[in-house]
Specification:
By secondary structure, the chain is an alpha/beta fold. It has 12 helices and 11 strands. It has helices spanning about 20-40, 55-85, 110-140, 145-165, 175-185, 190-215, 220-250, 275-280, 305-310, 320-325, 340-350, 365-380, and strands at about 5-10, 15-20, 90-95, 100-105, 265-270, 290, 300-305, 325, 330-335, 350-355, 360-365. The relative contact order is 0.08.
Length: about 400
Amino acid sequence: MLPGGGFKIAKVFGIEIDINPTWLIIFALVGVSLSETMRGAGWPGHPGRFPAGVWPWVFGFGTAIVFFACLLAHELSHSYVAKRKGINIRRITLFLFGGVAEMSEDVSDATSELEMAAAGPAMTFFLAGVFYLLFRVVSANPNRGPLWIIPLWLLVYINLFIGVFNLLPGFPLDGGRVFRAILWKITGNLQKATRIATYGGEVVGVLLAAGGFVFVFLNAILTGVWLVVVGGFIFLLARSSYQQTLLQIAVADTKVKDLMYTGVPIIDEDTTLTDLRNQYFTTYHLPALPVAHHDGEVFGLVSRDDLATINPSEWDVLNAGRVAHVLTEEQIIGPEERLNKVLRRVMRAEQYLLVMDNGQVQGILTVDELQRYIRARSNVTQSGGKATGRQ
């Protein structure tokens, strides 16, 4: 449901800012809509019209850029609070339906959830207030025309709308997360609070979609279709977010070391690919193996897929050190980390993560094994049983 992929445009507070290609669609739509709104428009309480020609388009798309900067500020507010709570935010991605922050883990208490969820709308309403003050100052000057006044007024209106919309009590909207945090704090039961907030998200999604069909019936087709799409997205995202919460609960008492494959061999960098296949991948049914320098320092991973991309005639010439991919921080995980804290990160991995402690390889955690364990654990949790991990 959430966007994947895009291109990096900036880095703020150590957080990558990415743009998903779908964002270009909504940017174009918003820019055109604002430009059309400005064409021939007056401004509140004043005579006159917006200049014709190219100016409505220049200021329309300029206002769209400022609007998306406001959305980014909204997400950065969430992220700033998250980082203060010790939760790492890897990136923020702007996409078709707004923006989303990629968190390393979910929050572990109701108070943190409440503060994080409220930070975004608070920033949006703050920006609406700033633009309103600017509008009042600029419009009080008789020499200022609609070129500056109308964009400011539109930014006030848009930020107010976004702020109110986000406060709708439907999970996973910010208002739904605030609602869940309050229920969580009252009941002490995360699953119950999420279930109730999810119902709210489904209701919001259905109502938006129903409103969209009404607009279509009234011949406001573009608005109607957009509401139907947004409503459907919120409905599906509410359900998937609830399932994500159930997974977090199911693995809350499990550590990485309980599930990892142990006894993982470390491959010397001079090992030929023929020996790698015949002596290691044939014996160890793992998607990848760690590769070390002669001094024993592990520096990379070589996978079965790497071998598949190389002509077998070259296997006796090339060695593991030549084809290994250098280890990144995202590919390493600690054995004592709890799965509910790192579930998001593990599920982002393509196939596996290397488990290391103080520079020493402890094992490999594969995504396939994690998924198998989650399915088993989810089935037995209701009956009070316990699924066993990989040893």
